[in-house]
Amino acid sequence: MSGDLNSRVVIVGAGHAGGSAAALLRQFGHTGPIVLVGDEPIPPYQRPPLSKAWLKGQADADSLALKPLEFYRDQRIDFRPGVKAVKLERSARRVLLSDGAALDYDFLILATGARAIALPIPGADLQGVLFLRTAADAEALKAAVGPGKRLAVVGGGYIGLEVAASGRGLGAEVVVLEREERLLARVACEALSTFFRGQHEKHGVRFELGCTVVGFEGEGGRIVGVRLADGRTLPCDAAVVGVGAHPNDELASDSGLDTARGVVVDLEARTADPHVFAIGDVAHRPMPLYNRMFRMESVPNALEQAKQAACAITGRPAPAGEVPWQWSDQYDIKLQIAGYAFDVDEVLVRGDPASGKFAVFHLNGDRVQSVEAINSPPEFMMGRQLIGNRAAVDKKKLADVAVAMKEVAV
Amino acid sequence: MAKVTYIQFDGASQVVDVKPGLSVMEGAVKNNIPGIDADCGGACACATCHVYVDEAWAARTGERSAMEESMLDFASDVAPNSRLSCQIKVTDELDGLVVRLPESQH
Fold first, then answer.
1. Nearest to B43 among A68, A329, A385 (CB)
2. Following DSSP, what letter does each residue of A288-314 receive, concatenated?
3. Cβ-defined contact of B39 to A303 (cutoff 8 Å)
4. How many whole angstroms separate alpha carbon A270 and alpha carbon A278?
5. Contact across the interface for B74 and A382, Cβ inside 8 Å
6. A20 Cβ under 8 Å from any chain B Cβ
7. Chain B CB within 8 Å of residue A329 CB
8. pLDDT tens for each residue of A238-253
């Protein structure tokens, strides 16, 4: 069944995962029809720059695009923008689209991504209450930040902090409102939270931690302030809500596939239905390194799973497992993270945070589970390798910046 | 437009036109040239766009930055002419550039 290079492939979702899967199928010699369905008006593009280079005007639409539009024509990829898949009929192997079309498939790849979670509070539908997920969102945000504009960022996660940094770079006044007592509470260790808070404060960002946003105040349909649980209202010209994302897994769940926390897949990115794959932010996938299932929202994950699905469909051996990783750029700070801090019994800091260059290693016994590296590429690169080959480390050496990273393995 | 030649590890080569201002990495990715993964899209964060710059072009492609240097230090099969292709901007002067790809980016 797999390995038929002439099979009909339908990819639902034209983001980084879906676009990469289409390109990889052709790279791997797939000759059959490929339909790529996306609900946005433009071909697949990179989302990470939306909060960084693009927002600051350092990247244009052309450079965001994964491939130029001609690519899809030249590669005979039937790209259908502005259309949603509305129903999956797995027994008939057919997808119904919002424009009335019905697509028959031999293999379906669900790459529907995730959507920003909205706050269920009064005023959430006011003009100027923004999200950052799509290029259109980024366009609206770009128009809302600039010299003297007041921007409230709801949520002190990576998106919120990157928007805060870019907003300051554009001259906006920025306040970040976070429910937890520290920034990045769900995704990073305390040393990192403290470091980023200090860096942002140095650049003039204000923080309200442990604060609950209870509503957005509007005038004439436009936001003028954010109301907090303690009774204060902070005036603003726009608010960006970055409080997490929810997988777009309804197509799969309505068709009876397992979607407890995203669409459940195996190491080939295949669901329980051998004709249906799910990749990227929407997929709940095995992570053999950590002996568990997990849903990840990152570009490297989208690419890895696109590769898994394309290999399975074209009959190639499954690609070697990768160590998950991600990055964030804020001001002149480069954060690189490898692995996830699962099953950690010790946290070790290498380097002095005050120097602006340090790395936090999360250990299980003498094995590295995860590393968060600030302006420290060797720690990131070597850490990623140590995680991948489960090598034991000498903790004394690891804690000593005088010992090169290449020397820390036992 | 500048012509850039990408030579795969197995010797297969592709010549494509790259718009000046784009990076050598972007030239490969936008033309669907295999072997340059570029996971991070050019943020110098992943070292998956490693190439070898043909000797004749080494001087014109410039020096490695400190960040690039330390990323490359941990890539596989690094040679003196290794570069991260996201850090080489294509200019008219680089018309005819030849780069070779390593066996793997991981």
1. A329
2. GGGTEEEE--SHHHHHHHHHHHHHHHH
3. yes
4. 6
5. yes
6. no
7. yes
8. 999 999 999 999 999 9
Please state, in angstroms and as integers, the Cα–Cα distance from residue A402 to each residue in A324, A406, B105, following that order.
28, 12, 29
Q: Which residue of B has its CA nearest to A405?
A: B74
DSSP labels for B1-23?
A: -EEEEEE-TTS-EEEEEE-BTBB
Is the complex ipTM more than 0.90? no
Look at the block and give the residue holding tokens 């939270």: A193
Comparing CA positions, the residue from A328, A334, A357 lying closest to residue A162 is A328
pLDDT attached to residue A1: 53
Domains recognised in chain A with CATH numbers: 9-115+245-314 (3.50.50.60), 129-241 (3.50.50.60), 332-407 (3.30.390.30)
Count the neighbouring beta carbons within 10 Å of the beta carbon of residue A20.
29
> Nearest Cα to A23, choosing from A9, A7, A4, A40?
A9
Token pair in block for residue B7: 């030579």
CB contact under 8 Å between A49 and B41, yes or no, is yes
Residue with tokens 């957005």: A216
Distance (Å, rounded) from C-alpha A147 to C-alpha A137? 20
Q: Provide the Cα torsion A165, A169, A173, A174; round to 10°.
A: -10
Contact residues, chain B, for A68 at CB < 8 Å: 30
Contacts of B80 (CB under 8 A, 6+ apart): none
Go through chain B and tell me how many residues it has: 106
Gap between the Cα atoms of A344 and A364, Å rounded: 5
| Alpha-carbon distance values, A126 to A243, A246, A365 (Å) | 17, 21, 51
The CA-CA-CA angle for residues A316, A6, A89, to 5°, reads 95
With H, G, I as helix, E, B as strand and everything else as coil, classify residue A246. Answer: strand
In terms of Cα–Cα distance, which of A328, A4, A341 is closest to A165? A328
- Structural domains in chain B? 2-100 (3.10.20.30)
How does pLDDT run across B44-57, given as a tens digit for each residue?
Answer: 888 899 999 998 99
Residue of A nearest to B75 (CA): A381
- In one-letter notation, the amino acid at residue A296 is M
Q: Which range has the worst mean pLDDT, A54-63, A172-181, A291-300?
A: A54-63
Supply the pTM of this predicted model. Answer: 0.94
- C-alpha to C-alpha distance for B100 and B77, rounded to whole angstroms: 12
Chain A partners of B46 at a C-beta cutoff of 8 Å?
A: 300, 325, 327
Separation CA B81–CA B52 (nearest Å): 5
**Do residues A56 and A138 touch, judged by C-beta distance below 8 A?**
no
